[in-house]
Amino acid sequence: MEVGAITFKAFTKVRLVAMSPNPQNPNELSDAASYSIEAARRILAGKKLFVMTGAGISTDSGIPDYRGEGRVARHPMTYDVFMGAFEARQRYWARSYVGWSRIALAKPNPGHFALATAESEGALNYLVTQNVDGLHQEAGSKAVVDLHGRLDRVVCLSCRKLITRFEMDELLQELNPGITKDNTVEFTPDGDAEIEGTANFRVPNCQSCDGILKPDVVFFGESVPTQRVEQALNQLASSDAMLVAGSSLTVNSGFRFAKQAAKSGKPLVIVNIGPTRGDTLAIAKIEANTSLALERLLID
Question: Helix, strand, coil: what percent of the chain each, to 5?
């Protein structure tokens, strides 16, 4: 298969060099990025796709990522810290109470809709997301596994009862009537707002058993449920190619799938602005906004 001056014969031995976004207008694809996308379209044509998405796909919905270009690296609360002290849980829920509404009000963007359309047309076999915002489902995707859980659910760590995040917000509001939500503060993909002075914030326990309440997400330092991983790996095995969109693949929970795809001889295409841990494994790397690139890559 010829693309310009490059001939793709053995995809495991040829890698398309990464292309940059349009420096004059990041909301437009550069000629180089368009060239990369057309090459990737030919590589993926007719193949059942296993897709993995990360925080980068939700930035156009107003949700920031952790490691995007120009952002200072930040370190979210770990599971051990959350479980280790009431003060840590107090700090988490105070910050989350302020930041959650920004996540709840976010809407899917063209990248989410492009993936939902690809699924409805039979091109997308399975979608694994590292995000906890639920935007893929809101866009219409159905074959989705939320690898790191969902921020719109809260679980009791004792009786395992689930409540919605809106129910949790009502409990927090009842206990902290004097707290107002400032929608101008900086926040993260998990709704953790940058606020101080949380020492007097009151945190509810489970209404059924008085157990500790935790967002139904996988914290850093916590393992992804084995069944969830095995389900995704089985779907990868039954797919023909893998597409990564908006993830740096920094954490092993996501990188394992890219490694498995490469090991299995499946072509791997990555759409992400900035380097990723899987770049050397990819047959094609497209450095472009995911909303723009996925529409062009997946929709005829």
Answer: 35, 20, 45
Is there a domain that residue 74 lies in?
Answer: no
Rounded CA gap, 265 and 263, in Å? 5
Q: Which of 187, 217, 247 is the last residue of a domain?
A: 217
Confidence of residue 77 (pLDDT cuts 50, 70, 90): confident
Region of residue 171 (left: phi > 0; alpha: psi -120 to 50; beta: else): alpha
Parent domain of 244: 2-65+109-149+223-298
Looking at the predicted structure, is the pLDDT value of residue 20 above 70? no
Residue at a domain's end among 196, 217, 238? 217
Residue-wise pLDDT for 30-64, tens only, equals 777 788 899 999 999 999 999 999 999 999 998 87
Q: In angstroms, rounded to a whole number, what is the distance separating the alpha carbons of residues 68 and 238? A: 31
DSSP 28: S
Structure tokens at 81: 């810290």
Catalytic residues: 148
Q: Is residue 139 located within the same domain as residue 285? A: yes
Number of Cβ within 10 Å of residue 55's Cβ equals 23
Residue 83: pLDDT above 50?
A: yes
| Stated pTM of the model | 0.85
Q: For the residues of 226-295, what is the DSSP string, one character each? A: HHHHHHHHHHHHT-SEEEEES----SHHHHHHHHHHHHTT--EEEE-SS--TTGGG-SEEE-S-HHHHHH
